[in-house]
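Researcher: Here's the sequence for the chain we discussed earlier.
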Amino acid sequence: MRSAIKKSVFFVLTSVLLASCATQTAYYNSLNSLVSEKRYAEAAAFAESSKQKEYGEKNALLFYLDKGFLLHLSGQYEESLKYFEKAKKLAEEHFTKSVTKEAGTFLISDNVRPYYGEDFERALINIFASLNYIFLGKENDALVEARQVDHLLKTLQTNYGQKSVYKEDAFARYLMGMLYENQGQLNDAYISYYNALEAYRDGYKYFNCAAPQELVDDCLRLGQQLGFNDDLAKIKADFTPANRNIPQGYGELVVLDYNGYSPEKIDNFFEIAFGRAWAYVESADVQGEEEQKKEDARAIARSVLASDQIRMAFPKYVDVPYSVASIEVKSADGTLAARGKVADDIGSIAKVNLEDRINRIRIKTIVRATIKFLLAQKVSQKVEEGNGQLAGWLAKKALTVAATATEKADKRSWRSLPDKIVMARLALPKGTQSVKVVFKDRNGSSLSEQTLDNIVIRPGKKTFVAVRSAQ
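Model: Thanks. This is the structure I predict for it:
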């Protein structure tokens, strides 16, 4: 018993050093500032120079994710693919270990474990890798990556018994449909479009992300062409089409806007403390490094003054503000225009996904806090029996302070992601074209513009480009 107690005391105390207390707010503020100024290569270099300080070994996956996406933004698609490939392998390795070896451990904080990524983050690795291949002109490879999203989600469901609200990725299906159609594989394109519609209707309703009307048009057009008449009536009953008519000899420009900043995880603390003549109960959200330090100091002070204290931390997403709410893409002469529609609400998926599993997190957190509390009681009692009341009190306070200082929610996430992926599809005549992308605020007022030149439009085909709105 004494040996076990000594080991437990040693673990709790050394956890103060192991647990990450930094929120990385300053780092990501600097990274986002570079991105907002479209200095993507500098942002990628900044991430590289911060690899050891801000990421470290246990957050290697986050480094690969951030670096891969920043290289994607800077147009270094081959290099980006290398980092995403590393991310895929590491995410699978860490996830498998977490399921097989760590499912029953409660005393260990999630912060001391390697980060293996959320389900939707792991799917986005394949999606952005697919887009890398698209921009490299390798649509077959892009399809392979997009299809891996389906394999990933089925693997999570079947092999690991994941019961998540995020079961299907509508945007990945949508992207696959456009790629199949570009290659003339119309039956596969129709199936992907139809699956995307179902995913938007059945799964993405939780994320407040409706099926884009252009997708409805795609499904109706190919369904009619392939003779799937039974499906057509159902589609018309469930969805509203845009009723676009693309002229003969025209192609489409598909503009993807990586819009805004992904939400940030913060600590939501719940604390109960008792003194001889007082009681303290608080639930508080703590955002930012300075506020975190102040709240930690107050909690540690209460742990010294109180007779007993239990403190628990749960993760919570909060929005990171940005100004651009929509885009409009216009032809060079201004006669043709298309408005952007949200095709993937990453921020909403992140929030709902966390809400979906928050009860599991709470149970684990409560069990861990209870174990720490009982450990402090047991150890202080043993110390008091052998060394007196003062020694027992000091032992109890040391363990309570350590438990308070180390109680942090796992706030890690792929922070360089956009909040949303907005898609605008503009029909243009074949040939080399220039377009203007207008970024607008929530009132529809123009904030800035970006001109895209030398875009090759092929009749009956879709050409993809990406922009980043991070104002």
